[in-house]
Amino acid sequence: MRHRLLKTRVIVNPASNRGRTRHRWSEIKALLKHFLKDFKYDFTERPFQATDLAREAIKDGTELLIGVGGDGTANEIANGFFEQRVIINPEATLGLVPSGTGCDFTRSLNIPRNLKNAVKFISESPGQSIDVGRVTYCDQNGQPGSRYFLNIADFGLGGEVVRQVNGNRLERRAASYILCLLKTMLTFKGQQVRLSVDGQATVSDHYLIGAIANGRIFGQGMKIAPRARLNDSLFDIVLIKSLSFFEFCLNGWKLINGSHLNYHKVSWRRGQKIEVFPVKAEPVLIELDGEQIGTLPASFEIIPSSLQVKGFLK
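^ thats the sequence. predicted structure below, dont judge the formating
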């Protein structure tokens, strides 16, 4: 029995993966044509345009919206599924073709990295409901902002590293996440914040990393929240206290394989709403899904089973 072809729109970030997506688009387009038959597509030309394109497509009746790019592209498109804090069409489904430098979120969905296998996966796998995070924060101009995120939001080190990665890109230098991470660790020692989880306050402390995780992996492969699940209606909150550069080099490998949760400077818990406030006047940067968006104070809230995605959840 043949499946009904879904009305499909593809949103492509040609600048993703350091511009390689633009050069391989003809190959990607041919595979999409082979497995999905009929679709329309758009290229993004500016930041956050993918959100506008996605929202417009869903209002136009698009049933399957496919993003071609990295985690930032996926985040922008996911935000387009919502308007005025309401999902536009609960039946609309998000598919992702990994074509970015990190693509950490697609690992939690178990989407193949191989291009042909990824497109085949999208054409064959059923849609599954996942949770989405929503954060309110202070934007770059000090004004209130709000965004959804799919994978992981964090404050502290992650925001500092992403700022340096983005600075390197603006200067047209190589933007290796790991190199920027090590360079940042030489000077960044953590910041003091206070938190509450589901209304219960925790003791304020100096933290190097504070991760509010829907997915498991960030930072181009680091398993920051190895027990997180995309459909359990909970965030995994992973807090890492300040580490010296020597401590980080000695124990950083634990972040790669996810064995850090038992380290004495790491705490872990679960919750649905997390509020984080800076203790001092210095800005504490926030990043989500690989993009630096603003600063604390911030509130993070889980929105259970709010988005249909093409993926295989273990």
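The chain has two domains: 8-125, 133-304.
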